[in-house]
């Protein structure tokens, strides 16, 4: 004798689970698309302004140091160490500016998280309806969840790459400020000790 058990599927529970998963995925999608993106753009713009200010400060140091040192008879030993550090500060500032500019999505060439139209889901559901398939709602939710997951993964990769550029820009900005400060201090000590 063969005892066959009939398998009972909890379609309602499955569709409710898919609803919850889609809702959670939508939140994650908007975090990647809006929240993290907006924060990174604000950080990039701040670093851009800071790099510009540092480059301007470096140029002002060069002009101020030359004006002050031009009155002294031996100006090369006073200006050389100052200019050495300030030139490196300018180089670090320009590199920080470049990394910050590349990190902004409009300049970095970032692609959208989802390339297809969201109307593809209604077209797919309509085709399944016309062919008489069952579980259209669950299949559509499953397709939506799959594509949301792929978009979130792409957003995570994009945001991580942008975050790396912003970290590099931050380090270069700190180096630029440090070298500018060292150049300013070296010139001040040399100038006021010899004056």
Automatic annotation (TrEMBL):
This is Uncharacterized protein. Keywords: Membrane, Transmembrane, Transmembrane helix. The chain crosses the membrane at residues 47-66, 78-104, 171-193.
